[in-house]
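Sequence only, no structure available. Ideas?
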Amino acid sequence: MQVNLSNKTILLGITGSISAYKACDIARLFIKAGADVHVVMTPSAERFVSALTFEALTRNKVLTQESESWSSPLNHIEIGKKCDVFLIAPATANTINKLSKGIADTLLTQTALAYKGPIIVAPAANTQMLQNHYTTGSLKMLAVNDVTIVQPQEKLLACGDLGSGALAEPMDIFLETAKVLLKEPFWEDRRIVVTGGGTREKIDEVRYISNFSSGKMAKALCLSLYLKGADVCYITTMDKEGLPQGIYTIDVEDTQEMLEYTQDAIRIAKKGKMSKTSLNSPDPKHLIQKEPYLFMVAAVSDFTPKFPQQGKLKKNILGETWDLELHQTSDILSSINKEGIKTVAFKAEMDPENGLSNAQLLLETKGVDAVCYNLLKDANSFGSIDNEITFITKEQQISLGRLDKLTLADHILDRAKALTNE
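Reply:
I predicted one. Tokens follow.
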């Protein structure tokens, strides 16, 4: 899934860490997403990676102690004025402590002090240096001042110690930065439940009944929601590869398990969150609770084996024919309490004549607020990189066209905003 950051400008700050070479991968991710990338480096950073490397990657002149110019915008005052976000990755313990105190004795810290936009810091240092009370205090101070901290990994460090301090994965840093750039007030801090994948109904310990759902559309929705600032709970039968660590994922197998976890997640979501604009109000009546959403994307099995078996059923015992007794599964959309939550159902059909009317029926029979209707050609339609959705409400039907699934998820969310009067 390719995040679109066209028309965005990134200022990438690089400090003197052994992880400085990973900044090349970070810069590539932004460029691939369509962003314009500018780089500022400390003298220590240049000991690990040359400025020429980043000039070749970004096609922009790198700001260093030697290249700073007051006859052009390549200086610590002007360079930040055209950038939407300032990402410092890797950020050493030395730089972290300087940033929190407002010390500006390097070109990078001078640039940070002059920068008025959002700042993101991705620490990379020895575990003891990061856990030192001066550094932990500095990180807390930066967070209080609305600096986003991308937490380091715990692994074997370059110094030989095992612990927390390795730079976060480039993709995680990229996604956290994209989240700062793409967040929307409507979705920010709103609690969202998304279900995805095809349920697996157990026959015995090695066999199950399922379907061809890939879970890709659900993952695209989760990513789009996360980048818009939502608090996402993803209930799925599939993996979460490619999704940010910040998305809370619940792994399930069958329909009953998905029903139970969905009910629990909705119950928690309805408790709500206070919007940031309400935190300054001393009157509890002024606290704003955002209405949560449920996106029911999962392909739930209609039937499940009546008598799932322990162990493995033997072929020679079953014989040449096997009559597998099934019974209907619970209808999740009909079973959950939808009061106080906006619900968007997904309906895949292969009937070009009746598919649309079947999708429309969900508005009444399941009591949902909207339906995303998808007409499939055959089993090969599952798992594709794109999709075609018609967004249906009681008032209208809107074709969103055939698009890649992440772009389509953005369009679905734009339409879903209209379901509430907030």
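The chain has two domains: 9-181, 184-419.
Hope that gets you unstuck.
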